Amino acid sequence: MVVGIDGSEAAVTAALWAVDEAVDRDVPLRLVYATGATSQPCQAPYFVTDVAVEYGETCLRAASSMVAATGKTVKTETDILWGEVESRLIAESRSAAMLCVGSVGIDWFAGRVLGSTATAMTENAECPVVVVRYPRKVHTRKHTPWVVVSVDDRDGTDELMGVAVDEARLRGAAVLAVATWGCLRSDRSSADLDRRVQRWRDAHEDLHIHQVATASGLPEFLVMNKAHFVELVVLPADDADQVRAIIGSHCQPLVPYGECSVMVVR
């Protein structure tokens, strides 16, 4: 379970989000700081490596302390990686069960400045990626949290639904299976989707699984149904381009669900 740490509160939030994932899988929580410096310590001037290492160690200590404060039993590993941030995180993803990164915004502007790493991970990592949203306010549990999953007639839908079910059970949430207009072009496809959802309900009777259809895309659906608290959106890798529309910037999320996290499944 790998988490990219960069010194931001968003990255610490990602580390805390990943704790339950690591505990559930019984795997170490690996916190990594990528320096962004292409030179190895023996090749760069001393002051360059000294500052990079000192800052990285400070960031990792802070994140590790927050993880330890949860009181949950999880083995934590830390590492400083030398090289370009995105390429090093992608390399980490090749052997990771999941990669978690924070986001302070990956909209049109911030995607070029603050959230380019999150964008690159959702598009290029080789394991499931979660962009963990740093909330601007604390939500209460007065309302049922939802794990929203995009469903259609593609081959990977059953696997995607399985991931959503696992996440809902782990986080005490309900599952909302959203079928977009494109997969419901005929009565036959609609009936087939109904049967599949019912099969999921029968297999997971302990969870509330609700099915809805929308004539719009998933980001637009989230805008129109802002009364419910969405904790996590689960997307297939082919729909990774929707992450930007769902999350938006930190200060001004493109949609009201800009505070939810998004998982891209591979």
TrEMBL record:
Superkingdom, natural source: Bacteria
Designated name of the protein: Universal stress protein
Cross-referenced PANTHER family: STRESS RESPONSE PROTEIN NHAX, UNIVERSAL STRESS PROTEIN UP12
InterPro entries, per database record: Rossmann-like_a/b/a_fold, Universal_stress_UspA, UspA
Family, as annotated: Belongs to the universal stress protein A family.
Pfam family of the protein (one): Usp
Start and end residues of each UspA domain: 2-133
